[in-house]
TrEMBL record:
CDD domains: FERM_C_FARP1-like. GO terms for molecular function: guanyl-nucleotide exchange factor activity. Residues 1-115 form the FERM domain. SUPFAM superfamilies: PH domain-like (SSF50729). The lineage of its organism: Eukaryota, Metazoa, Ecdysozoa, Nematoda, Chromadorea. This is FERM domain-containing protein.
Length: 209
């Protein structure tokens, strides 16, 4: 298997793991059952006893809000017939609930919106606004895809060197790695040296021909 095929196999395996790249947030549902909420690219996922029991897609979520320690997820009624229109989860503290809500807003905006419009600051808004004024400020997924397509450069083909293991000799020194090309001009000014490690001999020395 080539290094490129190994990378693709790793990514293919990682994306199938439920817990890869996510952080669990402890909460309780309306019945008091302990659950863990995670935020992923597809939406909000609910875990119970290390099993994913529900997924609320970003496309099906109509509104996200929080009130004190309670997170409120409003769904489109035509998409979730087995759930109420509003799903509630209770966190331990208000700060935990607000932090999770902020992450949900960022992910929902990034994956669902075409662009993020700048907020207009007015004096009236400071006195009559309700709730948090937090908004996602950054590029959306569509903007990043468009930017990559417009500025994509043709990459030159290359072969990745395969790193061989470092074999130690009897005198406590390591042999030169196989992927170093010491005839390359970049090594012309490198003099022979060795770095002493505390309690572990020396690092490999570079001999310039």
């Amino acid at each position: 298997m080539s290094p490129g095929e190994s990378d693709l196999t790793f990514l293919e395996t990682a994306r199938r793991c439920d817990y890869y790249g996510v952080k669990l947030h402890a909460a309780r549902d309306v019945e008091g059952t302990e659950v863990n909420l995670t935020i992923a690219h597809m939406g909000i996922r609910v875990f119970h006893q290390f099993q994913c029991v529900s997924t609320f897609s970003w496309a099906k979520i109509r509104k996200l809000s929080f009130k004190r320690r309670k997170l409120l997820i409003k769904l489109h009624p035509e998409n979730y017939q087995y759930y109420k229109e509003t799903i509630e989860f209770l966190f331990e503290t208000r700060n935990e609930c607000k932090n999770f809500w902020k992450k949900c807003v960022e992910h929902h905006t990034f994956f669902r919106c075409i662009e993020v419009l700048p907020m207009k600051k007015t004096r009236e808004g400071r006195f009559f606004s309700k709730g948090s004024a937090f908004r996602y400020q950054g590029r959306t997924q569509k903007q990043l895809i468009d930017y990559t397509r417009e500025h994509r450069k043709r990459r030159e083909p290359f072969t990745r060197p395969i790193k061989s293991g470092l074999s130690s000799s009897s005198n406590g020194r390591f042999s030169r790695p196989a992927f170093f090309d010491m005839t390359h001009p970049a090594y012309a000014t490198v003099s022979e040296r060795s770095v002493n490690l505390i309690g572990s001999g020396t690092m490999p020395s570079r001999n310039v021909p």
